Amino acid sequence: MSQILTFIILALYIYSIVSTILVILLENRNPIRSFTWLLALLFLPVIGLILYFGIGRNYRRNKIFSKNAISKLTHRPTASFDIQQLENKELGVSHTKLIKLLHNNNNSAAYADSKVDIYSDGESTFEAIFEAIESAKEHIHIDFYIIADDATSNRFREALIRKSQEGVRVRIIYDYLGSFQFVWRKKYIRSLKKAGVYIQPFLPIGKEVFRSRINHRNHRKLLIVDGKIGFTGGLNIADRYLHGNHLGKWRDTFVRFEGAAVHGLQVLFLIDWHFVDSKFITDSKYFPAPQKLGNNIVQMVASGPDTDWEAIMQGIASAIMTAKKYVYIQSPYFIPPEVILSCIQMTALSGIDIRIMIPKHSDTKLAKISTMSYLGEIMEAGVRVFEYTAGFLHSKAIVVDDFISIIGSSNMDERSYMQNFEANAFIYEEETALHLKESFLRDMNTCEELTLAQWNKRSKGQKLKESVARLFSPVL
After folding, report:
1. 113 is catalytic
2. Quick check: pTM over 0.90?
């Protein structure tokens, strides 16, 4: 009897391995990635299969988000303009092509004439956030990767409870794994629900452990108030963005919008809300008529593991390739996929001033070591690399040629481009770009520049560590 049971288990395992290999082959993904998973399945019995179903499956064809829901919410009337009107906006050919790319690969609407404010420190960011919350009359929509359980998040909670008790509709989405500390302290969530706040987790482990979605997290940071004020960027709701931690003060970038661009943020939130709560929210009160408050174009670009294209990655790659003068990049993790790496190298080799700023010390040692493995090959192409020393650089911001600004939640790594649900604002305007450029140049005063000569002096042991860490880049 035991022999029969062993035979059945072995047969089922072989069937699982063979069928999984066929699925990988039929997905027609990057050959290196596919080959890696094939090796894992063949040489890591059981473990390889568990890893593949946990973090390896490709959801671009098997959608997590309902296409019907996305269609209903993205095709409702908002303040966006017809993309064909771009010819009337006096934009350069390369900028027009970028806007059309993001419209075609992600249905990212273009919004004109918004007010844009950029914040480069936690104090001013949270001051603006709490001021916006206090001004709420109708609704507050919140979508954050991390909501901690500390002084800052408790002040946040108290403000939301107060507004809910005043009759303001408050909806919150938090990532289950990102906010794990917060999840286990039930008192925080219960107090919000008791006050009438609607709060939902994104992909809770209990429901998703057998659906192979644990690796796909909602990394977005969105806050919308009354459909009139909206925020996005890299900051989470936690003390460290105000007071720092063992790494020092955290330096981040957040952007506040008023006007038509807020409609783009609202659409992203309502798509996420439908996913976590199965409710369509399409009432016109969530999209009030905006005022004309500036002279710019803004696109809110979302991407995730189930979108048809890697929209944010394609947009950033295209923006880099449009550069005629410079590209300045800030990212806490620099573990770029091949397409981004190639674009950076080609642009630098063509004589464009490319500067990349990363933190001197990271909150993730493996990610930092992996980052180091990429620096030599970009410096050889002429890229200047700066390590931020005044704390931890958590900013995810790119500025190109005094006109294109990209601010959002996505890091420059495979996890952000392939695995996470992310949101980035692409802003086309000189004033905003100059602000971001000046901020970058100011941060350079607290940086150490790496040189190729220094880099080449690394020990063989260090180089080996970096190369091994790089193998794990798809899951960092």
Report:
1. no
2. no
